[in-house]
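Regression test attached.
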Amino acid sequence: MDTSRHISDLVIKRLPRYYRFLGELRNSGMSRISSRELADKMGLTASQIRQDLNCFGGFGQQGYGYNVEQLHEEIGHILGLDRKQKAILIGVGNLGRAIANHIRFEQLGFQLIGIFDKKESLTGDIVRNLPVRNTAVMDEFCRENLPDVAILCIPKEDAMPIAEQLIKLGVRGFWNFSHEDISVKHPDVSVENVHFGDSLMTLRYRIK
Amino acid sequence: MDTSRHISDLVIKRLPRYYRFLGELRNSGMSRISSRELADKMGLTASQIRQDLNCFGGFGQQGYGYNVEQLHEEIGHILGLDRKQKAILIGVGNLGRAIANHIRFEQLGFQLIGIFDKKESLTGDIVRNLPVRNTAVMDEFCRENLPDVAILCIPKEDAMPIAEQLIKLGVRGFWNFSHEDISVKHPDVSVENVHFGDSLMTLRYRIK
DNA sequence: TAGATTGTTAATCGATTAACAATC
DNA sequence: TAGATTGTTAATCGATTAACAATC
């Protein structure tokens, strides 16, 4: 392995899936697995799994394979799940509310520390044990609490100004549910898009 | 162009984004655009855009570029947005409810025709103008209404049996919000996964 | 006609797969 | 030790980028 070389986005996108499968295997009581077996279960090639893992280190043992629990933990560590970062959520519509309640942030390397909405009538509502705050106090809140990432569950037209405000306040990543492309204008921050429309359209294309 | 050759998944995943950008440009009153201009706006190369589009046909004109409105429409047609397919949604938790209410199905090539949940107490509730039905009557409903795709907003452990039941009933595609991988076991059907956990983990990885 | 920009072919780059020596 | 399976290098495959002739 060569830890110094650049790791491709495709590899990174596969890591959570490895993590998920290994977690299941561990829960089912399996203690070791070969790249071949894992490949069969995941619909990949053994070569690819070995190449992927060797971007980060030699986690296996010749003649034996990989220790399921240890590899699961290693990948969790590579992803950074053991070091929580602070997240805020903006936009408490039916989507924002569902995301706030549905996502197991702690298991995914985050701690949700604040929820905001511009609508005055929502201020003070309790969502997942947090009081909804007005976006007017977001500046102050961020200066005090220094969130690392922001979850944008707001309409397209609000996304860019809010993102730019947050970038100025030190937010370095966005989980973006709005239909706005932030990265073209801000290649410096990390943006993970969840574009439902795009996703559903690709499904529409495939069903012919 | 050569319409007969296989079209890569990467191209297909870019189509909705082209569609989105062209829609915005059209709404802003722009009538023509060159591949160079579009590339700059989208953070791609002009070459890539021309290659992508030429998978489906020669939509531009030398010396002129592309007609925004016409190209937007063409891509919509390629995606199949003008031919609606029938969709059902299973699982009316806070996520399923949010998806049902939040997504503009009609704009994305679908018509939502049924909503199901196994929880008796939800039967009869109205979600987005549709009555929630019990999963017990799903078989009968599908035989009558022949849905093309199913949206799975159910827990991991319920996903595989429900998917297999629906495959038998002729469902050919899944928009899968459960943390279960359906395609490994069923490579014959189209599955578009929305794995929130995976998505958020890649963001966690990138913020270091 | 001259300028612009496509459609398309060729060159490059990167990712996946295959092969195999190292080694547990 | 023999068998198994890794880590890693080499070969293949596919996707992106560059170049340019065709043409509006």
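Expected vs. actual: identical. Residues 8, 10-11, 45-48, 51, 61-64 of chain A lie near DNA strand C (CB under 10 Å from a C1').
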